[in-house]
Amino acid sequence: MDQTKLKELGLRLFEINAFKFGDFKMKVGINSPVYFDLRVIVSYPDVMNTLSELLTEYIRQIRVDMGVHLCGVPYTALPIATLISIKADKPMLIRRKEAKTYGTKKLIEGKFNAGDKCLIIEDVVTSGSSILDTVNDLRGEGLVVTDAIVVVDREQGGVQNTEESGVRMHSLFTLSYLLNVLLEAGRIEEKTVQSVAKYIAGAQIRSDGSFMKNGTKVVNELSRVGMSFEARADLAKCAITKELMKLIASKKSTLCLAADLTSSEEILNLVERVGPYICILKTHVDIVEDFSENFVKSLQSLAKKHNFMIMEDRKFADIGNTVAQQYAGGAFKISSWADLVTVHSLPGQGILMGLKSVLNDPTQQRGVFLLAEMSSQGNLATAQYSAATMKIATEMEGDFVAGIVCQSADLVASPGLLQLTPGVKIEEGVDALGQKYDSPEHVVKEKGADICVVGRGILNAKNQEDAAKTYRDRLWAAYCERVGVSE
Fold first, then answer.
1. Please, is 4 exposed, middle or buried when counting C-beta atoms within 10 Å of its C-beta (0-12, 13-18, 19+)?
2. 134 vs 22, which has greater pLDDT?
3. Which residues are 19's β-sheet partners?
4. Would you call 315 a catalytic residue per the annotation?
5. Verdict on whether the full-model pTM lies above 0.85
6. H helices present in 165-238, as ranges
């Protein structure tokens, strides 16, 4: 690698304002003293040519296997990847940020086969999240991804975050290297170098939006997982989400009880005992053998008495017209009594429109939780499916979507949406049918859960009331630790 040419390119990037110093708000929610905008390089053919030549040489020098294909992370890296593709004589793939709604509806454009290897090209990396989004979509199509080439590594955790997902990241420039080049050339002062170095050390960003500072995990207070329910209630667009967040904060409970019992009397007796400790009661009414209108009325009475919401875990998954009838009609008439329901996103937005079409009473607040991920082993919810679900949730957040059922802290970004996570049990492990369980602390602090579903951990306890209280207290303590407030 020609170091003189590399330094000259670094200076040229500074000259064309591809990076600058000041006070800039980053996508990850924090301020930074340095900002990179490599989109401007498309206006400078000489820079584009030099950069693509150096990247191609760098790839060969470090002996990274280019595999069969190249793929640029959309959108800034696309022209860079295109030039490398031409210089290296390697086919290129294009990843769309969203699948087409017409034609072939492809997310990945280009000719490829499952098992082909693909090298990712990216412009600037902070946390590595954009690389990982592309990796997930490529892997979802059966492609093999093990390496990524980037122009600039801001040295804020991208290498570690991508490595945790099995991707080695290689950078042409690091932020530290560019600072030294500018310092040597007299373009910046020593105090600027020191200021940025201090910033880098204090802003190591993990994939879940938290930071590593002096070896300690610090949650970003501007991220969903770092905000209190009171603060998030002001940002929620869905009316029932606002109410649920306020309920959680006032009751100091993030516990959702899965009342998977077959007798209405058993359920009502259980709820009378544990109602004071829960924020949501989750039902499966299709397994209640003696379901009746009186049972529903009694359940609603208990919900009012103990201040919790009722969620029917119906997991609607049909076309709009069918789910509308399932929601409002049939033997259960779910829309008349369930505050919340669970919904698969597989049919698309039509399923939400179908459900909403039967809500004619403006005094009834209703909402849905979309299933993006599942807690059972071997489930078929791919990263691509989860991302598509989040897109639907974001688009309909202010209308009807209260939250997301998932297992990952970095999936739900909006503080106005709630993350509901099942599979919570003090004794971690996997049952005989493949259901995975994690501890209350792990689910809240590592998986990012806002509401945690507990079933058998309470149902099978000798003293169900004491068990519910224990779960409520441990979950709330974990939440307080996560957001940095006292209990």
1. exposed
2. 134
3. 36
4. yes
5. no
6. 175-184, 190-202, 229-233
